[in-house]
Automatic annotation (TrEMBL):
Entries under InterPro entries matching the protein: YtxH
Name used for this protein in its record: Gas vesicle protein
Transmembrane segments: 6-27
Coiled coil: 35-66
Keywords: Coiled coil, Membrane, Transmembrane, Transmembrane helix
């Protein structure tokens, strides 16, 4: 039930109670009878309002529970998606690291070969 519906129902009940009270006050009855009718209508209206309050509270609680479950589900999906993306990034970084290690090893090997060739060239001169 939306907030507007609850407000409308509350307004109708309040209007009915006020209307009944005014009607009873203008009725040509004794004061005791009039007071009993007012008290009876007030209790009836109070019970109806309490019933509506319980119903609205229950509905709000149900909606809050549903919203919490939806949020937790979306959070779980988001975390799962982020986990997969993080794994993809780690795989890409590991591949790049391996590529850099291979290049470094080749550069070191080329450097050693160049040094040896340089020493050999000096020695054969």
């Amino acid at each position: 039930m939306s907030s507007n519906t609850g407000n409308t129902l509350l307004a109708l009940l309040t209007g009915a109670a006020i209307g009944a009270g005014i009607g009873i006050l203008y009725a040509p009855e004794k004061g005791d009878v009039t007071r009993k009718k007012i008290q009876k209508n007030a209790k009836k209206t109070q019970k109806e309002l309490e019933k509506q309050l319980k119903k609205t509270t229950s509905q709000l609680s149900t909606k809050a529970d549903k919203a919490r479950v939806d949020f937790e589900s979306k959070l779980e999906d988001t975390l799962s998606s982020m986990s997969y993306k993080a794994d993809d990034i780690l795989v890409a970084l590991e591949a790049k690291l391996e590529e850099l290690r291979e290049k470094n090893a080749k550069l070191q090997k080329d450097g050693i070969v160049n040094k040896i060739e340089s020493k050999v060239a000096k020695a054969t001169k």
